[in-house]
Amino acid sequence: MFESVQGLVDEHAQIQERLADPSVYQDQGLAKRLGRRGAELNAIVETYRRWLQLQEDLEAAREMAALDAEFAQEAKDIEEELPVLAEKLRRLLIPRDPNDGRDAILEVKGGEGGEEAALFAADLLRMYTRYAEARGWKVEFISSTDSDLGGYKDAQIAIKGEGSEPAEGVYAALKYEGGVHRVQRVPVTESQGRIHTSAAGVLVFPEVDEPEEIEIQQNDLKIDVYRSSGPGGQSVNTTDSAVRITHLPTGIVVAMQNEKSQLQNREAAMRVLRSRLLAHQQEQIDAANADVRHSQVRTMDRSERIRTYNFPENRIADHRTGYKSYNLDAVLNGELQPVIDSCIQMDEESRLAALGEED
């Protein structure tokens, strides 16, 4: 049982040896990748060693049980603990998303519903910001296009897991948030008190550690510059500082306009483009690999409606997992973890079931 774990134990030892070499840190990208993989293996190695130790303890306790009743009780306790530990190890061995340990770039976009959708997009951005702060993560504002009433037509933030275990990276938690979020409430623009339904889209991409990770040919880029604009379309800049970059092979388009400098907007756009290309590459790998079991709660269909926020009932419902609670006000204030946990649990269960089928 768990014979394959020894290879991971050996890999963990090799990584720790490399991380002890000061020369590794001359390449920060390499050091970060090694640290992320090492942290990912830590829990597996520690649990496996504990499982082996318990088996030895059980054998010793059984041998001594004939001489001392206390050892018989110890053997019984170990027999109860071993299956629990084995299940924990089995879950740790579920194939992971290779980007789980990364930081993330999160985008929100107002969808159907006009100004109300833009205001809801701002509510979602605030929810993610407060959730990140509660986790001890750092939030960096990248770009936004404001609406007339103070919402966001679109906005982008980077979330970095400073001080957190890389194995429990930002992307590992937030990747389930991608999709369409629907809101039901009385808009501030509604004079009759009628409940309206509108929506906002959320996109989550893994952050690229180093620019060199993603090779981008200059000939593959179409770069346009234009004047940035504010709410209602009015110009807020008299120079062509806004930048739109199109990656021709994939059709991915990124636009930035918040910085006054064209160079700064271009750097921000390239940062987001690299993250989108990293996600695109992983999608292609998954699609090409016939053995990959796709998550039931995280698909690449960004038009999928994943959640409803009902203000009159103070209710939040996740349509993928069946999660429902009546503390919407708390969730919007950053208490998002139970919702995310329901996604993680369902994802793990589906992956475990897939492993069982393969066995």
From TrEMBL:
> Which species is the source of this protein?
Galactobacter valiniphilus
> What biological function has been recorded for the protein in this entry?
Peptide chain release factor 1 directs the termination of translation in response to the peptide chain termination codons UAG and UAA.
Q: What is this protein called?
A: Peptide chain release factor 1
Where, per UniProt, does this protein localize?
Answer: Cytoplasm
Q: Name one Pfam family in it.
A: PCRF
Q: What lineage is this protein's organism placed in?
A: Bacteria, Bacillati, Actinomycetota, Actinomycetes, Micrococcales
Residues annotated as domain Prokaryotic-type class I peptide chain release factors: 227-243
Q: Name one GO cellular component term.
A: cytoplasm
List N5-methylglutamine occurrences by residue: 234
Sorted alphabetically, which keywords does the UniProt record give? Cytoplasm, Methylation, Protein biosynthesis
Do the record's keywords include Nucleotide-binding?
A: no
Q: Which GO terms describe its molecular function?
A: translation release factor activity, codon specific
